[in-house]
Amino acid sequence: MDAFVPVASSAVGYDGEDHISTLHDDLLRIIISLLPVKDAARTSSMVDEVALVDAPLLERLFLLEAPRGGDGSTVMLNIPCASNLRALGYLEPRFHSLHIGDNVIKPGTMPSPSTVVAGIKILACKVNFGVLHEVKMLVAFLRCFPNIDTLHVESLTEPTGRNHAKFWQEVFNIECIKTHIKKIVVHEYRGDQSELEFLQFIVASAHELRTLSVLISKNTFTNLANAAEMTSILGTLSGVPWRRDCKMTVLGPEFQNEQSILKASDLTVDDPFDW
After folding, report:
1. CB-based contacts of 133-139 (< 8 A; 24+ apart in sequence)
2. Does residue 7 have a pLDDT over 80?
3. pTM more than 0.85
């Protein structure tokens, strides 16, 4: 059963209640249609599809809760028409299936007029860098949004002993990384080799990058020696000669902020995912 849900000042109603989460179980699809105001939308883990059918004024779309039941549940996100959409997140490869019109975005999907959304400027993703499929989907997502200038990546990585250096060496044709991205923030960095390989790819490829911030996970930041070693390793990334114009900052877990729907829906905040 489909439901048309016009969104006013936010998906959290004027009375402070989260009305999306209280929808009847039959209302498993949300179609955001004919939005009357500039807005931010929030989806719940109860929803199995979000489709932007006709949302010309929607500027921000937030997927703050992904399925956590371990039953393989996914949420389909379809973006056929959202000409003013500027900020999107958090996309999670393990839980979100991205569709652009009739095209399902998969590992290896290459950019074309029918598989890109040019208006997105800020993208946020959650990725387990130890899982190759998720790494490939991150690349596929990035290819869909060629004009991103700000990228947030929250690491869900657990030590696996796996690395994907060969994959990153063979990646090419990510337009946003090569020519647009100016700011990258990596949240919950754990110091795994797979995370470092991603950062090495970024500093070698993102020629317009001006700010790289790495926020260390509290689960990793256990003692001063550990922190010093991690900071030293990260410091080698700034040694790329042409990276002199990029400011790299390594921050402790005290700088991590909880996700806030109030902050996310505040249009006076330029970057709703910022730490």
Report:
1. 133/93, 133/107, 134/93, 134/94, 135/164, 135/167, 135/194, 135/198, 136/107, 136/108, 136/167, 137/93, 137/105, 137/106, 137/107, 138/93, 139/107, 139/171, 139/174
2. no
3. no
